[in-house]
Specification:
The protein is α/β, with parallel strands linked by helices and about 725 residues long. The chain is built from 24 helices and 26 strands.
Length: about 725
């Protein structure tokens, strides 16, 4: 496939070129300057030195005949856009490239936009369907550009795609890009104090993740717009303090009240439809980042106002003449001294100039010194030939030439060699850093795929053995097995399962791996967690921010007859485990578990009269004993706590049941023993919690006795 990229020759386009060419595609770039040795792609590309609004771009389209065009523009990647020549050309460049894409029947046009196009929300996250209302110059330009792409594309049947990127980072300091990270680095290095908007929240996205998202958009995509942003928002103030600590500088960071920019970006659509995943964490990347102090200082200096500097050649010429006058004066002063007159100061002058300034200035020093020598001989143009042919004069001139030219030439060669070695060293250092980054990424991906495809824990036989535990027709056995299955497959120790009652909207704890797994207590109202409720009711996997209060890492629903009957909650996961693969695993498991419950409940409906007293939910003695044994096993494995009560009454069990049933939770169990006495098994109730139950029952004049589970098992 032939791809045309319109933007800047920087780290983003370099990685994009390498990613595409590696897949057998050819990439051409339209930019006003080529790559440098620092950010040059490793694979082949074609570069055209034009602005995108130039009439010559038509000829480029005609020659290349691209199948896909990616428009980034010269401002892409910059944190802040300002009113300048680059922004003035932005829309005209886009319009020119759009029209040429239509003219030459490009298969697909991809526009790289910004998440700053959205209206600022007070709560929740913005999705691709959220309202557009930009408040920044960058957002306003991007909104106008998106309108151009959408309208012109639909009018001319051009297949368009818009990617709205978050805050991109990962450019090298010496690339002189203006992403948020490099802006902070420059300002901390070059300013007396750094001012930060305390209302600004970033959604950091690494270059490599951004390039991967763009790469996955090749071919047909289900949607026309995707958000691509980091899943871990971070305050701009926190970024500044982290970088300040990393740089070890004393520049004060001062907060100021600015316009609110704190939208949380939802990138779930591209993750689901294109299986894109975010690999790079900002905090971990910053911790591993090694700043090249020399490069940072060069960038800082380049950002400062440039002072009018003198021409170095003229400066060296002046220094040379001043030095000559000084040495000539000393030589004249010491010519009658008995000892110092033997010191050849003028030869020292020539050698010094050759050492410090090189061969060009040394030639001038030879001419000046020889002229001074002739002046000392009472030189007269009438006897010029006679003096020049004099042996002493000839030898003196030869001495000056040898000392000046040879030393100067040697110094120049050494400086040239040193400069070449320095350039080569910097190039190799940059190559090493790039290769190290590639290697680190490859190692991480290698480990992940090994874990997925080779490890016994996730191999198909192992998965079958684990999920086979769900092959039961008893719902209670299924509830007990869910936690074991999830712990084995997802490799996390913070799993809990809640039953859900759609009548009152409460989720109640059925079991948990340990105390740390419990989410928001033993019960919570689902409607109080809007994002979680929205995802679960849509029968989708919820991916939350485990570092925020009131949010699990992941959650999935168990459905039966169109209603949620249970919720699987994973409170926390390691960063390496929180990826698209784990999400798909949980989605598969919830589907398997739902299927198991369908079979179990269908079977239970058929045998209901055999397990329960007629027209009640009271388990017969044999079934109740089996339930007690199962729950006793759960208690021993610390999956849940259970307390057994015997209700004291002279009435018949079925009659008394209807009097007391509303005093207990829907998750508690009623059952009989061999003597037809009525019992209640309280789920998730430890011995210390019985006091609350006792107080509630005494108000209703209900009497009971505590019974050990072993007495009935």
């Amino acid at each position: 496939m032939k791809i045309l990229f319109v933007g800047e020759c920087d780290g983003f386009s370099a990685q994009f070129i390498d990613r595409q060419v590696k897949e057998g595609n050819s990439v051409s770039v339209i930019a006003h300057r080529d790559f440098t040795k620092i950010n040059k792609p490793r694979l082949d590309y074609k570069w055209y030195n034009y602005h995108a609004e130039s009439i010559n771009v038509d000829r480029i389209f005609s020659n290349i005949r691209p199948q896909q065009v990616v428009f980034a523009g010269s401002l892409f990647g910059d944190e802040i856009w300002t009113y300048d020549p680059a922004s003035n050309r932005y829309l005209s460049e886009l319009l020119n490239v759009l029209n040429l894409s239509i003219k030459y029947r490009v298969d697909k046009f991809i526009f790289l936009s910004s998440t700053e196009v959205y209206k600022e929300l007070k709560t929740g996250s913005v999705s691709e369907k959220s309202e557009l209302l930009a408040t920044t110059y960058k957002g306003i330009l991007s909104t106008q550009a998106e309108a151009l792409v959408t309208e012109i594309g639909s009018m001319n049947s051009l297949n368009t795609l818009i990617l709205r990127f978050g805050d991109i980072y990962g450019y090298k300091p010496n690339e002189e890009r203006r992403d948020f990270l490099n802006n902070v680095i420059r300002e901390l290095q070059g300013l007396n104090e750094l001012h930060i908007n305390k209302n600004h929240k970033l959604s950091p996205l690494h270059l490599s993740d951004a390039v991967e998202a763009l790469f996955r958009c090749d071919g047909n995509t289900p949607s026309k717009i995707y958000n691509v942003a980091g899943s871990q928002p971070i305050d701009a103030l926190e970024v500044a303090n982290m970088v300040k600590k990393k740089l070890d500088v004393s520049t004060p960071v001062i907060t100021q009240l600015g316009s609110k920019q704190a939208n949380k970006i939802d990138s779930q659509l591209i993750k689901t439809e294109l299986e894109w995943g975010e690999f790079k964490s900002f905090k971990e990347t910053l911790d591993a980042l090694k700043f090249n102090e020399k490069a940072v200082q060069q960038v800082v200096l380049s950002e400062m106002p440039k002072l009018q500097k003198a021409d170095p050649v003229l400066l060296h010429l002046i220094e040379n003449v001043v030095f000559f006058i000084l040495m000539a004066g000393l030589s004249t002063l010491f010519k009658d001294h008995s000892i110092l007159k033997n010191v050849d100061l003028m030869t020292l002058y020539i050698v010094s100039v050759a050492l410090f300034f090189g061969i060009r200035q040394s030639i001038l020093s030879i001419i000046l010194t020889f002229g001074f020598y002739l002046y000392g001989l009472q030189f007269d143009f009438g006897n010029f030939i006679h003096i020049i042919l004099n042996a002493d004069t000839f030898l003196k001139l030869a001495q000056y030439i040898f000392m000046g030219v040879v030393v100067g030439y040697t110094v120049d060669q050494f400086k040239t060699s040193l400069a070449q070695n320095t350039i080569e060293k910097e190039y190799l250092e940059n190559e090493y850093e790039e290769l190290k980054e590639i290697n680190d990424a490859n190692v991480m991906i290698k480990h992940q795929y090994e874990k997925r495809l080779i490890s016994y824990k996730t191999s198909l036989p192992r998965l079958y053995a684990i999920t086979n535990q769900l092959d039961s027709l008893d719902p209670e056995i299924l509830f007990s097995s869910i936690i074991k299955v999830l712990v084995d497959v997802l490799e996390t120790d913070t799993v809990s399962v809640y039953s859900y009652d759609s009548r009152n909207g409460y989720a109640r704890l059925i079991g948990a791996k340990n105390e740390e797994s419990v989410f928001m207590g033993k019960s919570f109202k689902l409607s109080e967690h809007k994002e979680l409720e929205h995802k679960l009711l849509e029968n989708d996997i919820f991916i939350g921010n485990q570092w925020a209060d009131g949010s699990p890492a992941m959650a999935g629903p168990i459905f039966y007859k169109g209603n949620i009957i249970a919720i699987i909650l994973i409170k926390s996961m390691t960063f390496e485990s929180l990826n698209l693969y784990q999400v798909n695993l949980l989605r598969t498991l919830t589907s398997l578990i739902s299927s198991s419950f369908i079979r179990a409940y269908q079977y239970e409906e058929k045998v209901h009269n055999e397990k329960y007293l007629k027209n009640t939910e009271i388990l017969v003695a044999s079934e109740f004993k089996q339930l007690i044994k199962l729950k006793q096993n759960d208690s021993e494995q610390a999956l849940a706590d259970y307390t057994l009560l015997r209700l004291v009454s002279s009435e018949e069990a079925s009659t008394y049941y209807f009097k007391v049933m509303n005093l207990f939770r829907s998750t508690d169990y009623f059952g009989l023993d061999d003597k037809k006495q009525l019992y209640v098994l309280l789920r998730n109730t430890a011995a210390q919690d019985v006091a609350f139950v006792e107080a509630r029952l005494k108000d209703k004049n209900i009497h009971f006795e505590l019974v050990d589970l072993n007495d009935l098992a």
